[in-house]
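STRUCTURE:
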């Protein structure tokens, strides 16, 4: 059992982030970091991410979200603390 406190954040990523494998790349990075949560495309063209883990791993994910996959162009990443949605994996919705 880990003594590291978990936090959960919802990120909204805007820019050229759909149709460029952003969700798959986000899932791959989140799984590598040991995070749990989900990623989905939004109707407004943004990508929404909910991730739970240590502050250190969430910071690493946030840094990756600013870059994304090679074909992406990220204009902004907004983050807010959210309640733990539960679950034990990181999925693409």
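SEQUENCE:
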């Amino acid at each position: 059992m880990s003594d590291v406190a978990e936090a959960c954040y919802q990120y909204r990523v805007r820019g050229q982030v759909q149709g460029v494998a952003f969700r798959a790349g986000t899932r791959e990075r989140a799984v590598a970091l040991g995070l749990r949560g989900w990623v989905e495309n939004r109707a407004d063209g943004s990508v929404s991410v909910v991730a739970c883990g240590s502050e250190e791993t969430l910071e690493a994910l946030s840094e990756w979200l600013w870059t994304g996959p090679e074909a992406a162009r990220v204009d902004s990443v907004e983050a807010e603390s959210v309640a733990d949605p539960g679950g034990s994996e990181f999925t693409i919705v």
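REMARK: The longest strand covers residues 7-16.
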